[in-house]
Design brief:
Elements lengths: L2 E5 L9 E9 L2 E3 L6 E2 L5 E2 L17 E2 L2 H11 L14 E10 L5 E5 L2 E5 H9 L7 E3 L1 E5 L6 E4 L47 E4 L2 E8 H10 L5 E5 L3
Parallel strand pairs: 3-6, 5-7, 7-11
Antiparallel strand pairs: 1-14, 1-15, 2-7, 3-4, 8-9, 9-12, 10-12, 13-14
Length: about 240
């Protein structure tokens, strides 16, 4: 099995723009142990609806100084999230809300960590038997004469970068918040033992801004002529 990283195309044929955010998010934190402030990016569960939580107004872009309160909010979300969700500070939930203008390709890499797809393109991929593709409705106001229905693919964290491509003296995660920051390695290497066998699209659990596809996904996208993303193969060990 080959594994490939989704990236922007070098010379796009479509001119589009989207300005949007997910409806809810876990707050960032100010960790009393490592003194880091903020949250991560990439982790998103657009299928998760927090509207019925009594404290849903607390799930917004802000910094929570009390880690105990952050933990309480995270545990309130956990029963609604997919099994195994990391739920790190900054994790986002609910539909994308915002606006955009097209024309749009079949695959829209809104950000390196956010992949949208036309409804009919998703149906084609699902009909081909690709696994683990969950399309979630968005709340986007699109300025386009023939605006398509754009869905967001819920791309969950699964595989890991292999330790051999990480910095040699990388410190251990913070004992309180779990934060451990490093740059994406120039020669990334995937940990073969951690890669999922039940889905064709996922994000790296220890670098969530990177979306990874199986060769099955890539070959199907290319055969069907779905545009507009590029793929870079990553080795495994």
């Amino acid at each position: 099995m080959r594994w490939l990283h989704l990236t922007y195309v070098h010379s796009p044929r479509y001119s589009w723009s989207i300005e949007a955010d997910h409806k809810w998010c876990l707050p960032g934190i100010h960790c009393a142990t490592c003194d880091e402030v903020g949250g991560g990016i990439g982790e998103a569960y657009p299928s998760v609806d927090l509207s019925e939580l009594p404290e849903c107004r607390k799930f917004g872009a802000r910094v929570e100084e009390d880690f105990t309160e952050f933990t309480r909010l995270r545990e309130a979300v956990r029963p609604l999230a997919p099994a195994g969700a990391l739920l790190e500070p900054g994790a986002e939930f609910g539909p994308l809300v915002g606006r955009g203008r097209g024309p749009f390709p079949q695959l829209v890499l809104m950000q390196p960590w956010t992949l949208l797809i036309r409804k009919e393109a998703l149906e084609q991929l699902q009909a081909e038997g690709l696994r683990g593709l969950t399309g979630c409705k968005t709340q986007l106001r699109l300025r386009d004469k023939n605006a398509p229905e754009l869905l967001e693919l819920q791309v969950e964290p699964r595989g890991l970068l292999h330790r051999d491509c990480l910095p040699r003296f990388l410190p251990p995660p913070c004992v309180t918040c779990g934060r451990r920051e490093f740059s994406f390695p120039p020669e990334p290497l995937l940990d073969a033992a951690t890669l999922p066998m039940d889905r064709d699209l996922f994000r790296l659990a220890n670098f969530q801004t990177k979306i990874i596809a199986t060769e099955r996904f890539v070959e199907t996208v290319q055969r069907l002529g779905l545009d507009e993303v590029m793929f870079r193969e990553l080795p495994t060990r």
